[in-house]
Specification:
39% of the residues lie in helices and 33% in strands. By secondary structure, it is of the alpha+beta class. It has one domain: Gcn5-related N-acetyltransferase (GNAT) (Aminopeptidase), CATH 3.40.630.30. A four-stranded antiparallel β-sheet has the order 1-2-3-4, with helices on both faces. The longest helix is centred in the N-terminal third of the chain and has 15 residues.
Length: 111
Amino acid sequence: MLQIRQAAIDDVPVLLPLMEVYWAFEGISGFDPPRVSEQLTRLLSEPRLGCGWVAFMDGHPVGYLVAVYVFSLEHLGLTAEIDEFMVLDQHRGHGVGSALLGIAESTFTTS
């Protein structure tokens, strides 16, 4: 069963392995768990910066989405953009990504 919840500071240890998979997939070098953990904790501690969600399938973390606020002249103020979004290979094609996008979209269109 798929469950998605907004990420909290307690989810940092759950998110780090997923983030490492994402960084490797994207070819982003320099994944340093302590530094990433510090910045992720900051993000999740300061809602003005953005937020994230973590998806679980049968209690196991299978994906996440992080959105951050940025100032945009094109959009005449603050807007949110997806910074990181990943679903583990074996869980793709089962609606996990669509569900993560849906919850992020509904959060930012109602706030």
